[in-house]
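Run: sequence + zinc ion -> complex structure.
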Amino acid sequence: MTTILFKNAKVFTGKNTDFEAIDFAVDTESGRFINQETKAADKVIDLKGKYVMPGLINAHTHIVLDPFFKIGGLSSVNAVKTGAVVNTYIAVDNLNKLLKNGVTYIRDVGSSDNIDLQLSKLEKENKITAPGIIGSGPALVMTGGHGVELGLESDGVDEIRKNARTNIKNGARNIKLMATGGVSIDGETPHDIQLSVDEMRAAVDEAHHKGYTACAHAQGTEGIKNAIRAGVDSIEHGIYLDDEAIQMMLENDTYLVPTLMAPWAINQHPDKLPDFMVKKSLAVQEAHIVSIGKAAKAGVKIAMGTDSGTAYNDFENGSSEELEHMVEAGLTPLQALQSVSVNAAELLKIDDYAGSIEADKLADFIIIEENPLENIKAVQGDKIVYKKGKKVE
Ligand SMILES: [Zn+2]
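>> structure
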């Protein structure tokens, strides 16, 4: 056992409300934080003047997608056409980018060929160095519904139930459902209602029976309410939240995963993307920001997610830039840091072993130069990253 004591840093553990002078220690073999008093450390690292926080958790990614279309054609539409080998290559590259940029755990919410599930297994067995992955496999979508390229068409309660069970059998620890249309696909709107309450409830039941979660892509108001009624653990995007939807989320303890990066990234590249996508994206941006701000002020629990993989929505600085957008929308910097640590861990049901700097939890943390509670941009740019107690090179 090799132990390292980290001294003199200011630390946000995930559980405190400010960066405090806390010394902490890791065991590089178990990859966990340890109680520093148990044994004199083999090595001491002085972090005077530095800030430490838990590794970032991103609750909404699509690792099989190349946001810059360098390999093949247009983003999500391309995933199935490029095939499993190419998509696995893209996924591994994206995981490396995430890890280098401080993301130590993700929830992937729509993949092809169960690539997320298989990479999740390898990471768990310490056979690859990557962020931990809660995988969903293919999303469950209605026939012709949103995200069919990364989904399984499923109609009616029985078929949804069967496909949810199949995903779980293959290793899914979350079921992704499509409650509404969206921005990235032509011929539908964010307001379109897609899977019904009964269909979604069947999948939610199957996930919950196993102690796992279900989440819904839900953008329009009615679809959002349908998903909450069905009992999903989180609403993804939540573009058009009215007061009733916010109240329902509070009553049902439903998380919100905003993904403000998704429309923002499209809106930075209007000349390079199809008209339909840019038009829809510009139309939702303002409502999205207002919704997220209102939900944050009302006390809805928020977990950070980016939707990385959609057009120009990168796997590098995207997660830390999302925090900046969240603060601009009205979250306090503390809410933003909680959304990317303890809250996301709770949503992913990994909070018993990840998401905070405490003895026995995975030693996933980042070292940065400035206090992000004073300037949220401090999380962006170069940082030192530790995954399971080892420095990411
Ligand atoms: Zn998505």
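>> summary
The chain has eleven helices and 19 strands. The two ends are 21 Å apart (CA to CA).
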